[in-house]
Specification:
Layout (H helix, E strand, L loop, with lengths): L8 E5 L4 H12 L3 E6 L4 H10 L4 E5 L5 H15 L4 E4 L16 H28 L4 E5 L12 H20 L4 E7 L5 H6 L16 H12 L12 E2 L18
Parallel strand pairs: 1-2, 1-4, 2-3, 4-5, 5-6, 6-7
Helix pairs in contact: 1-7, 3-4, 4-5
């Protein structure tokens, strides 16, 4: 299927690893010209590998919590390519996990909100004009099923992702010339989740279903592309339907 992204300009935050890298690679396979944004210098290697494979990709090292950095990245993109068609906000951190609210301090809280909420606000703030000028302008955030489901020891992260879902909805109302959506994955096999869940070897023996980064990337691509035109302000949960299940498990109704 032609997603209509060939020769389009895409900016991806968090593109050096995990979901962001998967999204970047998926976009280039569709022929998009990508600007990879990450504070990790490993993003340069990603760009080099993509160019070696015949794709058009550049890397800009930046911190999305720094407004000067975000403005500079957007300015560079527009000066280099003359337009911007889609933005994928994949950068995010989990922060302190496995600790309750009374076991974390304000600095921990602020760091998570700074990256996951402020960073994506700045991203939207500085790309709205360019995206609204594009005939297919789209902004896709990577949120989480944690925006809707509370897990033990993940309050800062869950609150930040809930804010991101509402940011997408609010932007879709305020800026009707562009579309904004938020993909909400369950647990994804990324370096971050492996570290958080002490699963250095992966999730092969996990008792719960785990989503791959490539699977999430395909959902992001769909929402970034013009073929998803009716979708706006949505927040699809991508977790194999786990959010539909009762937390107490299967009920025993006895024999009939």
């Amino acid at each position: 299927m032609n997603l209509g992204l060939n020769d389009r300009v895409a900016l991806i935050t968090g593109g050096a690893s995990g979901i962001g890298r998967a999204v970047t690679e998926a976009l280039t396979r569709e022929g998009a010209r990508v600007v990879i944004v990450d504070r990790d210098a490993a993003g340069q290697q990603v760009a080099d590998e993509l160019r070696a494979a015949g794709h058009e990709a550049v890397f800009v090292r930046a911190d999305i919590t720094d407004e000067t950095d975000v403005a500079s990245v957007v300015r560079y993109t527009l000066e280099t390519y003359g337009s911007l068609d889609t933005v994928c906000g994949c950068a995010g951190i989990s922060g302190p996990v496995g600790r309750r609210v009374d076991e974390i301090d304000a600095a921990d809280w602020d760091q998570v909100q700074s990256v996951n909420v402020r960073g994506n606000f700045l991203l939207a703030n500085h790309t709205v004009a360019a995206l609204s000028a594009s005939d297919i302008g789209t902004l896709v955030f990577v949120a989480s099923d944690s925006a809707f489901i509370a897990f033990e020891g993940m309050t800062p992260y869950s609150v930040s992702k809930a804010a991101l879902v509402m940011l997408a909805r609010s932007l879709s109302v305020d800026h009707p010339r562009m579309r904004v959506n938020a993909v909400c994955p369950g647990i994804v096999d990324t370096p971050m989740s492996r570290a958080d869940l002490d699963a250095a070897e992966g999730f092969d023996i996990a008792s719960f279903p785990v989503v791959s980064a490539d699977q999430i990337a395909r959902h992001v691509l769909f929402l970034a592309s013009p073929i998803s035109e009716p979708a706006n302000g949505t927040s699809p949960i991508v977790d194999f339907g786990m959010h539909c299940r009762a937390a107490i498990g299967t009920l025993d109704f006895g024999s009939s």
